[in-house]
User: Which sequence fits this backbone?
């Protein structure tokens, strides 16, 4: 319902913009709040306004994600500066993630190895990220071994991201039967469109046009039924599905 001629989402955005100015937040928040008042307000509330979210690891990751969009090299610069000041495992882990996000997977692997050689040696979540760095660095065999060791040592640990990395590693190793089994399970429960887009790409690379066609049709129909915010979050993978669909239709 409009309030004094303005939509409620605009009123909320103005409230958060005022808070941003008074609390000395970076000016890019003003741009986000007024360009995307609904989503921007939600992100600001979770990462800045709510103290618990602001100081949580998840909240910090969202902030870093926004910063990567506005200044792609900022997170990498800041992570390196923090490690130079104090070579703590936490700072090294931040640099490892930043390097991976910047497409420098081989360097990321080195940092993850250093982290996993210390007190975080048995940390399952970090091990999954390490496996992803290995995969992106072209070391699919090592990524697979890393995840299989994790599964054997911590059978109760569950990770959809780890499952996807494992399936991708199998595909990269051309272990088609096993990779297909893993991907078929993944598309049944994985949140978002990434698993579907990656599987469709693998199927096309294998020349399995029939299964690729069925998966693309199903995935694009699913995308149409998603709420707007979900499509926004999956924008890169939706674009990849559409690209693969175009390639298949043109072939």
Assistant:
């Amino acid at each position: 319902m409009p309030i004094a001629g303005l939509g409620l989402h605009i009123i909320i955005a103005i409230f958060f913009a005022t808070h941003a100015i008074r609390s000395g937040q970076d000016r890019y928040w003003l741009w986000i709040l007024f360009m995307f008042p609904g989503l921007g307000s939600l992100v600001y509330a979770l990462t800045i306004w709510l103290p618990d979210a602001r100081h949580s690891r998840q909240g910090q990751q969202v902030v870093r994600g926004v910063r990567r969009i506005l200044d792609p090299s900022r997170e990498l610069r800041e992570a390196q500066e923090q490690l130079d000041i104090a070579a703590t495992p936490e700072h090294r882990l931040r640099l490892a993630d930043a390097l991976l996000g910047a497409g420098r997977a081989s360097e990321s692997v080195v940092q993850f190895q250093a982290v996993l050689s210390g007190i975080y040696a048995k940390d399952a979540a970090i091990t999954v990220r390490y496996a992803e760095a290995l995969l992106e660095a072209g070391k699919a065999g090592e990524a697979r071994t890393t995840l299989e060791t994790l599964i054997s040592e911590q059978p109760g640990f569950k990770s959809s991201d780890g499952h996807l990395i494992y399936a991708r590693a199998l595909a990269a190793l051309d272990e088609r039967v096993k990779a297909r089994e893993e991907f078929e399970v993944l598309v049944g429960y994985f949140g978002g469109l990434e698993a579907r887009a990656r599987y469709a790409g693998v199927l096309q690379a294998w020349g399995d046009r029939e299964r690729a066609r069925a998966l693309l049709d199903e995935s694009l129909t699913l995308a149409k039924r998603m709420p707007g915010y979900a499509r926004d979050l999956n924008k890169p993978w939706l674009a990849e599905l559409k690209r693969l669909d175009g390639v298949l239709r043109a072939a």
Remarks:
- The chain is about 80% helix and 0% strand.
- Confidence is low (pLDDT under 50) at residues 1-6, 51-61.
- The two ends are 50 Å apart (CA to CA).
